[in-house]
Design goal:
This protein has ten helices and four strands. It is α+β, with helices and mostly antiparallel strands. A four-stranded mixed sheet has the order 2-1-3-4, sandwiched between helices. Helix 5 (about 95-105) packs across helix 9 and helix 7 (about 130-140) crosses helix 8. The two termini are about 15 Å apart. Residues about 10-15 have low confidence and may be disordered. Keywords: Transferase. It holds the Pfam family DSBA.
Amino acid sequence: AHSSRDISSDLIHHYFFMLQVLCRYQHIWNIDLRFRPAFLGGIMQATGNKPPAMLPKRAEYMLKDIKRMAKYYQVPVQISEDDFQRVLGTRTLGAMRFITAIDMTQPQYLEPLSREFWIRFWSQHEDISQPENILAVAGQAGLSSEVTHKLLEMISSPAVKNRLKETTDEAIKYGAFGMPAVVAHFNGEPHLFFGSDRLELLGSVIGE
């Protein structure tokens, strides 16, 4: 791990592409990849941003673009026009608090858990706000039933709520206005990158 090349990635489930590629490149680029769960709703509210799919023409473009990116990055995305409404109508705060509880207790599960949540949400179209689906996600990521139930009890605790708020506020402090947001700490200076189409610029900044 090189502290001068520390990259903090604020994760939600909307964009898997950046997560996938950063995980693929973390050893090639010799970066210290750190996952920082943050709540997209809080970021959008604080910055006055709106979901891009609310603009019909942009939603039409995004539908095509996500399919192109899925093919390019070889990521299993299944998406239709109806999925945009499903996304806007699904509460992901419980899932984000569960991920936060994992980050606080067993961070080694953060990457597989984030992947599994994303696959179930985008590829299998499951409602990840439901406790039974959170249990299934945790089991697939390798967590025992006993540990998972303890974590589910944690998600309503002030400690977890405050931790998620802190990481969300930290993302906003770095200039985040949406997701995915990546902060690359290089030569003592933070560099914010938004979107999964900024990987080439990220590589350029860190000399790769």
